[in-house]
Amino acid sequence: MHACTDLMFCLVCGPRPLYTVPLQLKSNTELKAMFDQHYPNLVLLTSPLGSLKASLPKMTLLDTPAEEASESERWQQLLEEVDKMTQQRQVLVARFRQQMNSDDITKNLVGHLGNDHEVFLEDHLRQFKEVAAIIRQNLTAQENILTALTEANANKASTRQTVQEIAQQQQAMFASLVKSGGFLKLLQTKIQEGIVFYQKLQASVSRLRKRSAEVCEARRRERQNMERYSMSVLY
């Protein structure tokens, strides 16, 4: 009986439209789940720039401003000492090299008349001891400053670790915002597709309603005709 009724409906109203509403509802459910997932980021992306900046992980330092100022001053002093030693060493090495190149020890040794050559050499080389001693002091100071730099660098290890972690958090948030921005474009496309779909669905429903009304009207007239015929037969 149902098959016969369905056949009559198709003959009168035409073929039934494809029943795609459940698929569309499933797509809408998935889209809503994605929207709920990206909603916090979408709120941030549509908020003022100041609010967006305020939501980013902050590069907060572990030290107080006073400690930071003292530490920066200490680093500045160490770097100035390094520059000072570098310049001083360059001058001393150049001076020492010039003295060595201008000294003709062979000529002086040949011209020396005595037999105490070792004493002569020791006296002659004494002129270089002052510069050599200053260079040694410079090298010793370099080791001390290197130790101070190593200690200062170790003291900032925790701060560097914190800064690195915050930078990673910022990068992760940037990537998440970019992904949500891409989803926003997808959402706009899906919304437009949904509008087109439901417009077509509304048109199909309107046509179906019109056809149903026509069928009902035809059945009503058919019943009226049958009733008139029955009455005419009885009387």
Automatic annotation (TrEMBL):
Domain of life: Eukaryota
ALIX V-shaped domain sequence ranges: 26-222
Species of provenance: Geodia barretti (Barrett's horny sponge)
Pfam family, one: ALIX_LYPXL_bnd
Annotated GO CC locations: endosome
Lineage summary: Eukaryota, Metazoa, Porifera, Demospongiae, Heteroscleromorpha
Name of the molecule in the record: Tyrosine-protein phosphatase non-receptor type 23
Annotated GO biological process: early endosome to late endosome transport; endocytic recycling; protein transport to vacuole involved in ubiquitin-dependent protein catabolic process via the multivesicular body sorting pathway
